């Protein structure tokens, strides 16, 4: 929450009246976070935040697999509709939806213009990201074309076999994640411990190729702040290694 307040203050000090842009993650782990946001900070959330999605599954909004449904039930039902930027998930192909989403990102967000490598990329204030047991984040699954896309900001993608739900998705790319002002990773569970170790590994471990989790390598290139939220068990396990 303080990240939202910080970004709000920064907007004000820079004379910008725009809302704080926040991309929500899918998956089940952020449920409690969304509920807490709604319960404790409804007024602030409703007033000053523009909600995006980092990735969506190409299913109807009322499907139990819908990222939108989870976010709506926990948080967005309490937010005015014009503060939520939807991604179309029915009635068009994932490729068409990704194209539309790319245009929306470019229209609604400021573009990076300070001469760094990500110049021209739409810049989100805050990106929340879940972490998969295979080390993916958003819908950037290891080995898929989406995971290595470097030009586009939004792309269609399929997960690898075995990932549930096995449905097509639309996702932001690493370019957008790298350009964001703040990236918040949310991970819980023993099957993600190796990902946490990769995130906390030294640069030497990375250059030696000892960090395998894609998300652990990806966040090292972020230009903004990276915050990692994990559960107590993961911290204990890390401390005992
Ligand atoms: C999605 C996600 C994905 C998710 C992770 C973690 O599947 O929609 O965007 O990246 O966040 O797979 O999912 P869990 O929190 O359910 O473990």
Structural class: alpha/beta
How much of the sequence lies in strands comes to 15-25%
What order do the helices and strands follow? HEHEEHHEHEEHEHHHEH
Biggest beta sheet attributes: 5 strands, parallel
Average pLDDT, rounded to a whole number, is 90
What is the rounded distance between the termini?
Answer: 31 Å
The number of helices is 10
Radius of gyration over C-alpha positions, nearest whole angstrom: 17 Å
Proportion of residues in helical segments: 25-40%
Oligomer: single chain
Bound molecules: 6-phosphogluconic acid
- Which runs of at least 5 residues are low in confidence (pLDDT < 50)? none
Protein model, in words:
- Helix content is about 40%, strand content about 15%.
- It is built from ten helices and eight strands.
- The strands form two sheets. A five-stranded parallel β-sheet has the order 2-1-4-7-8.
- The protein starts with a helix and ends with a helix.
- The model has no long low-confidence stretch (mean pLDDT about 90).
- The chain binds 6-phosphogluconic acid (6PG).
């Amino acid at each position: 929450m303080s990240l939202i307040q910080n970004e709000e203050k920064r907007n004000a000090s820079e004379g910008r009246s725009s809302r704080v842009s926040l991309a929500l993650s899918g998956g089940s782990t952020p449920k409690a976070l969304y509920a807490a946001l709604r319960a404790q900070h409804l007024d602030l959330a409703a007033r000053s935040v523009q909600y995006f999605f980092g990735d969506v599954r190409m299913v109807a909004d009322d499907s139990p697999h819908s990222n939108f449904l989870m976010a709506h039930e926990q948080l967005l039902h309490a937010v005015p509709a014009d503060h939520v930027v939807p991604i179309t998930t029915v009635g068009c192909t994932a490729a068409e939806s990704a194209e539309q989403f790319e245009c929306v990102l470019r229209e609604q967000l400021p573009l990076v213009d300070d001469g760094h490598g990500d110049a021209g990329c739409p810049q989100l204030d805050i990106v929340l990201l879940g972490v998969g047991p295979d080390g993916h984040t958003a819908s950037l699954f290891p080995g898929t074309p989406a995971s290595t896309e470097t030009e586009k900001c939004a792309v269609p993608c399929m997960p690898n076999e075995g990932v549930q739900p096995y449905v097509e998705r639309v996702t932001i790319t690493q370019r957008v994640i790298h350009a964001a002002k703040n990236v918040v990773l949310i991970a819980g569970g023993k099957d993600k411990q190796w990902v946490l170790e990769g995130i906390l590994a030294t640069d030497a471990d990375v250059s030696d190729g000892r960090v395998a989790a894609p998300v652990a390598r990806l966040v090292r290139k972020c230009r903004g702040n990276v915050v990692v939220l994990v559960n107590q068990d993961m911290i204990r396990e890390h401390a005992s290694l």
